[in-house]
Amino acid sequence: MQEIVIGAGPLAAADVVAVARHGARVRIHPGALVAVAETRAIVDALADDVQPHYGISTGFGALATTSIAPVDRTRLQQSLIRSHAASSGPAVEDEVVRALMLLRLRTLATGRTGVRPIVVETYAAMLDAGIHPVIGEHGSLGCSGDLAPLSHVALALMGEGTVRVDGVELPAPDALAAAGIEPVVLAEKEGLALVNGTDGMLGMLCLALADLDRLLGTADLAAAMSVEGLLGTDAPFAADLQALRPHLGQATSAATIASLLAGSPIVASHAGPEDTRVQDAYSLRCAPQVHGTARDTADHAARVAAAELSSAIDNPVVTLDGRIVSNGNFHGAPVAAVLDFLAIVVADVASMSERRTDRFLDPARSHGLPPFLAGQPGVDSGLMIAQYTQAGIVSELKRLAMPASVDSIPSSAMQEDHVSMGWGAARKLRTALAGLEQVLAIEVMTAARGIELRDAPAGRRTGAVIAAVREHVPGAGPDRFLAPDIAAVRALVASGDLLAAAGITSTASAIADADGRNDR
C-alpha cells in the first residue's frame, strides 16, 4: 500500500487524494517530530509567563481578554473542543474527513503550531486506523479555519464523540480502544492548534481538482462525439487557429478534440463542397473555448492549492525565530475564491454539453436523425426525457455557481467580523461536480446512439468509446427503462473507463498513444 511521508516537505494534491480516496497510509518523518518537540518547549516556557498569550493563558475569539488560571488551562482546551464541535446536518463523506485530517496533520508536523509529538502521532494513528469522526455538513464559516469540522476530529482524539469505522458509526472511545490508541489529554494551546486551519475546504479543493481532471477530459470526448454525430467539421480545432488566441487550456482542448476526430469516416463523408454549411453552432465550434476556460481556471486553482499545501496555518503561530504571534493566515479567502471560480466553469461546461445533446434530439437541427433518436418516433420517445434530466441538472448548476465567498456574516461578538464561507463553497462544488458527471454521461450516451444511426462508421477513438458503452447499454431500439442506462454510463465516466477507451490520459496533455494525429 502506498505510504505518504508527512513532514519531509510540501504535500502534493495527489498525495491528498491518495490518502483521502485510496486509503494510502501516512508516516511522520522523524525530523518533523524533533521540530515539533523543539517548538513545544517554547510553548511550555510561556505557560507560567505573567504576560497573556492567546490560546495559552487567555480565552478564545471575543473572550481573548479573559485570563485563564494555570489550574484551568487543560479544561480550557477541552472546553474549546467540546463547544466548537457544533456541526449539524448530514454527515460529510469519509473521503472529505480523511482529507481534512491529513491536512491538519501536515500543519501540526511543521513544528509551527506548538503541539506535543504525542498529538501528531495519535492523529496519524487515527487516520491509519480508518477512524473517521462524524462531521455534520454545516458549521464552518471558513474563517478561523474550519472550526466545527476540525473540532469533531479533535473531540475524537480526546476519546469523545462519534466516529465511523468501515462505514459503521460507534462511540470514539470504543473505536480508539479497538485500534489500541490512547486518547490524548490536551495541554496548553493544543486545542486551538487542532482547529485553526482551512483544511476542510482545501481537502475538498484537492479532491475536486482530481475529479475535474477526469471530467474535463470527458467533456472534450463528449464534444468530439457530438461533432462527429451531428455532422460537424473539425476545421475550427486546427492548431493555427488556436494560436491566434493563445490560451493554453483552449489549445489543449482543441488538440484533444481534433485528435479524437482524426480519421473519422463520418467527418470525411461530408467534408467536400457538397456540404453548404459555412460553420457549426457555437456548442460544437466553441467547445475548446469553454472547456479551455475551465482547464485554465483549474490550473489557477491548482496553483492556489499548491501554495496552501506549503503553508503552516495556525493562530497564534510559532515563528521560525521562536516568537508566538497572532495572524490572519487562517482566513479562507484564497481557497474560497477558487472554489467558487470552479463552480462557475463547471456550470458553463455542463450548459454547453446539454445544448449539444438537445441538437441530437431535434430533427430540425440533427441533419437527418430521427426525432429524439427514437426507434419508432411517436410510439417511442427515445431520449427525450434524458435531455429533461440534463436540463434540470444544468439549472441547478447555475444556481450553485452563485459565489459563496461574496457573503459574510459576522461571528464571535464581532471579533470575527469577516469570514470566507469557503467550506460552503467547497460543499456546493462537490454537488456541482456530481451534476456535471451526470450531464456528460447523458451526452455521451446520446452521441453514441446518434453516431450509430449515421451511414458511415465512427472514428477509431470514438468507436472504441461506443464499444465500451455498448458493453453496458444497448443501442437504438424500442423504448426501455432509461434510468439504468444513464447510471451505467455515468459509472463509466466516474471510473475513467471512457477516457481509457479513447486513449486520453489526462486533461493536461490529452492523448495516450503515439498521437492520434498520425491517423490523418
Helix and strand arrangement:
Blueprint: E1 3-6, H1 13-22, E2 25-28, H2 30-46, H3 73-84, E3 88-91, H4 94-108, H5 117-128, E4 132-133, E5 136-138, H6 147-157, E6 162-165, E7 168-171, H7 172-178, H8 190-195, H9 199-229, H10 239-243, H11 248-261, H12 265-269, H13 282-285, H14 287-309, E8 317-318, E9 324-325, H15 333-361, H16 384-400, H17 422-452, H18 460-470, H19 483-495, H20 497-502
Parallel strand pairs: 1-2
Antiparallel strand pairs: 3-5, 4-6, 6-7, 8-9
Helix pairs in contact: 1-4, 1-9, 3-6, 4-5, 4-9, 9-11, 9-14, 9-15, 9-17, 11-14, 14-15, 15-16, 15-17, 16-17, 17-19
How many helical elements? 20
- CATH structural architecture of the largest domain: Up-down Bundle
Shape: elongated
- Rg from Cα: 26 Å
Rounded to the nearest angstrom, the distance between the terminal CA atoms is 43 Å
Oligomer: single chain
In short:
The protein has 520 residues and is mainly alpha-helical. The protein contains 20 helices and nine strands.
Structural description of this entry:
With 520 residues, the protein is mostly helical. The protein has two domains: 3-197, Fumarase/aspartase (N-terminal domain) (Fumarase C, Chain B, domain 1, Orthogonal Bundle); 205-448, Fumarase C, Chain A, domain 2 (Up-down Bundle), CATH 1.20.200. 54% of the residues lie in helices and 6% in strands. It has 20 helices and nine strands. Strand 8 and strand 9 (324-325) form a beta hairpin. Helix 1 (13-22) crosses helix 9 (199-229), helix 4 packs across helix 9 (199-229) and helix 15 (333-361) runs antiparallel to helix 16. The longest helix is centred in the middle third of the chain and has 31 residues, at 199-229. It is elongated, with a radius of gyration of 26 Å. It starts with a strand and ends in an 18-residue tail after the last helix. 52% of the residues are buried.
